[in-house]
Amino acid sequence: MQQLVADHRFTTDTERTRRIDALRAAMTTYGLDALVIAGRDDIRFRGRVFYVTDYWQLVADSHVVLTHASSPILVGGTVWGISQARQCDWISECRLSGTPGIEIGNILVEHGVATGRIGVVGLSDGALSHSHYLELTETIAAEQLVDATELFETCRQVNSDESLEALTDTSTCWKSIYTELEAFIRPGITEIHLAAQVHRICREHGVRDPMVVLDSTPFKGATSFGTDKVLDRGDIVTVWIESAGPNGTWLEYRRMYSLGPVSPEYRDMWQLYTEAHQAGSSAMRPGVMASRFVDEVATVFRSHGIQLDYTTPSDPHRSFHLHGIGTDAIQGVWVSGHDRILIENETLTVHPHRRFDTTEEIAKFGLFGLTDTILVTPRGGRWMTNDQQLTSAFVEL
Q1: CA angle, corner 40, sides to 153 and 325, nearest 5?
Q2: DSSP letter string, 227-290
C-alpha cells in the first residue's frame, strides 16, 4: 500500500540502517527467518516497535514483522488504528487487525517464511499476549516459534552517537522543565496543584506521556501523585518525572527541594547519598556486571549503618535498583531480576532503595534520594542530567 511521507522524523536513515542491519545479523547468527516484535502500551514494551519503525505509539498493542528481505511491516490494533503509523516511511506496509496473531501468520505465509524458524520478541516477558500467541499458532507451529527477546535487547543495548545525542537532548529538556517549575515550588501551594504545573510544563516542552511522582515531608512511604497537602516552609519536596521526551527517548529523573535552608540532618544524608552513588557509578565500566553499582552503593551505606533492600541476588527482600533505558523506560537489564555485563555507551537509570525499620525513618527519608541516567564509559559511569558533583539534584529554595 502507498505510504504517506512523514512530516516529522525521530531518527535518520543511517540510524535505521544500523538498527535493522544489527537485527538481521543477529537473525542470521541464530538461524531465524523472521522476527515478530510485540509492543504494548507499557513503559517496558512500547519502545520496541518504536525502535524498528520510528513510530511512537501511545496505547494498545502493536506488532512488527521483519524478514531478511522486507522492511518492517506493522500490524496495528483497532483501538489505536494505523493512521499515525502510515506517516512513517520506515514501515513498508501497515495492516489493521483485531486478530493480530492471525494477520502476522498471513504475512509470514505471504513472504514465504511460514515454515521457517520465527523469532518472537516478547515471548518470554509478556509483551506478546497469550491470545495473540494462540492466534499465531493457528498458522505457525508452536515448535517453530523461538524466543528472541534477549536477541533484540542485546541489539538495543548498543547506543550509536545519534541515539546518545537523543538521550542527551532529553536530559536538556528535563533541565529546562525543572528550571521553569521551580518558580511554583513555594510555601502555600498544594502538592496536587504543583503536580498539575509539572504536567502542564512537561506538555508545553513536548514531553509525550509524563508520569509525575510528587511527595513532601513527612513522606508517605509509597509513591504519590500529589495530595491536597499544602507545602510549608521547612518541607523537603520530591519531584520525579518519568517519560519519553519530544524525540521519543526516555528519562527518569528526580530532584529534591528544600523550602528554606537545608537542615543539617538532610544535608548530611544527601552527602551520604552522593558518596554512595558516586562509588556505584565509578564502578560502571564496560565488562562489569550491572549489579556492581548496587554492591558499591550498599558498601557505602553499610559503612554508615544503613541497609539497602538488596544485598545479594538471593536476598528475599531485594528491590528494583537500576535498569536499562532508551527507547523504553525499562529495557534490557534490571537489578534485581535480570543482571548482565555492561558495555560501553550503554545507558541505565539508577535509584537504589533503602531499607527502613521505622515509620519515623520513612517519614523523613522515604522518597529522598537520587535518580538519573548513567552512561557507561571506560572511566566509569557519567551522570547524564545531573552534574558530576550531583549538586543540581538537591536545591535550596
Answers
A1: 40
A2: -SPBP-TT-EEEEEEEEE-TTS-EEEEEEEEESSSPPHHHHHHHHHHHHHHHHHHHT--TTSBT
Name the average pLDDT for the chain: 92
Looking at the whole model, is its pTM more than 0.90? yes
**pLDDT above 70 for 318:** no
- Residue 322 near residue 349 (C-beta atoms within 8 A): yes
End-to-end CA distance of the chain: 57
Query: Considering only CA atoms, which of 223, 160, 164, 145 is closest in space to residue 191?
Result: 223
Q: Which amino acid is at 255?
A: R
59 pLDDT tier (thresholds 50, 70, 90)? confident
Helix, strand, coil shares, percent, the chain, to 5: 35, 20, 45
Question: What is the mean predicted confidence (pLDDT) over 89-114?
Answer: 94
Other C-beta atoms lying within 10 Å of the C-beta of residue 371:
23
Q: Which CATH architecture best describes the domain 161-396?
A: Alpha-Beta Complex (3.90)
What DSSP string describes 309-330? S-SSTT-TT----EEE-SSSSS
Domain ranges of the chain: 13-156, 161-396
Give all strands of the β-sheet with 331-335 in edge-to-edge order: 331-335, 322-324, 347-350, 372-375, 382-383
Can you name the CATH fold of 13-156? Creatine Amidinohydrolase; Chain A, domain 1 (3.40.350)
pLDDT tens digits, one per residue of 205-235: 999 889 999 999 999 877 888 999 999 999 9
> What local confidence, expressed as pLDDT, does residue 197 receive?
97
The angle, 0 to 180 degrees and rounded to 10, between the axes of the packed helices 264-282 and 292-303 is: 140
Show Cβ contacts of residue 141 under 8 Å, excluding neighbours closer than 6 positions: none
**H or E stretch covering 22:** helix 13-29
Residues 152/37, Cβ–Cβ less than 8 Å? yes
Q: Are 238 and 364 in contact (CB under 8 A)?
A: no
| CA 7/CA 74 separation, integer angstroms | 19
- pLDDT of 79 reads 83
Q: Per residue in 125-164, pLDDT tens? A: 999 999 999 999 999 999 999 999 999 999 999 999 999 9
